[in-house]
Amino acid sequence: ARREISTTRTMACTATRVSTFAKASTRGRGATLRRQVSTAAPVTTKAALLGDDLAILSAAVEKAELTGALTGDKPLTVFAPTDAAFAQVCEDLQLSKEEVLGLESLADILTYHVVDGTVTSADLKDGEVPTLNERFSLDVAGTTVNGANIVKADETIGNLTVHRVDAVMFPPWSAPAKVLTPQQVLAFEGWAPEVINGRLAMLGFLTAVVQEVATGQSFTEQFSSNFGIFAAQIQLWAFASLAPAFSSNEGYTADPFSMDASRTWREVFKGGPWGPEARKIFNAQTEQTNGRAAMVGIVALIAVETFTGHALF
């Protein structure tokens, strides 16, 4: 009789904890998703159920109170980051495992790894795949998902089809940024010095030519008589170029050479004139070439005007 009572209580606790995964995933932000549920004892078999190298993912699912996905009847497909993938995230973001599991966006991140229905590796086609995150889809290309490699495919665990991946995939606006100091961003061998100087040179050269045509003043005369304006422009453009590098969001890279790979920037560009086709023409390499040409142009303009003693235009 005691065994029957114990079994009945266990079934009742399990039923209470199985809150519908789909309901949680449609709530939107991570803070809303972490709903209050029954105080039943935590399920301690998650790590063993998913495998030895998916223990952190199992803990994350339980932490986000999305354990219903592991015990429900609805078929789901999970792109499951291994423990090594979570360890890499901890290293990259300089966060402990506990801090990663404590992210407010944890539920958003986890639902981003889950696809409705049974999707085997043979079913995967290049293109976008909707997720239970609902706001954002995954990009499948060959045996990669959002650039993460599928290291083991087609495991069946209860109602789940599990594909293990070697990276944690973050939807836009969900992860804190890597910790970068100004010294790292502005390192001479990095992207920032040349990019900022190139942008300032392009702005300066265009301004100088227009002003020379309008006023007849040479570049050096303009600079000396309008030093305050030049200084303000330099500060504004340098700040605009560097601001994303110090953003609290991982996806807001300021490096133009990695910007196109950022899902956050892709969401920013989506629906606007700066689409994929436009970015193929006006890309980081084009900007770099124009910036170098502008720097050479300014130096040449100053040299010629100094030699001739008057404005070139």
H and E string = HHHHHHEHHHEEEEEEHHHHHHHH
Q: Bin the helical content.
A: 40-55%
Percent strand: 5-15%
In terms of per-residue confidence, which ranges show pLDDT below 50 for 5 or more consecutive residues?
A: 1-48
Q: What does the radius of gyration come to?
A: 27 Å
The dominant shape is: elongated
Order of strands across the widest beta sheet?
A: 2-1-7-6-5-4-3
Q: How many angstroms does the end-to-end distance come to? A: 100 Å
Question: Could you state the oligomeric state of the chains shown?
Answer: single chain
What's the average pLDDT? 78
Number of DSSP E strands:
7
Largest sheet: 7 strands, mixed
Structural class from helices and strands? alpha+beta
| Annotation field: number of helices | 17
Would you kindly provide a written description of the structure presented here, covering whatever features stand out?
The structure is a single chain. The protein is an alpha+beta fold and 313 residues long. Helices cover 50% and strands 12% of the residues. A 7-stranded mixed sheet has the order 2-1-7-6-5-4-3. A hairpin with a 2-residue loop joins β6 (148-157) and β7. α11 (192-215) runs antiparallel to α13 (227-242) and α11 (192-215) crosses α17. It is elongated, with a radius of gyration of 27 Å. The model is unreliable at 1-48 (pLDDT under 50).
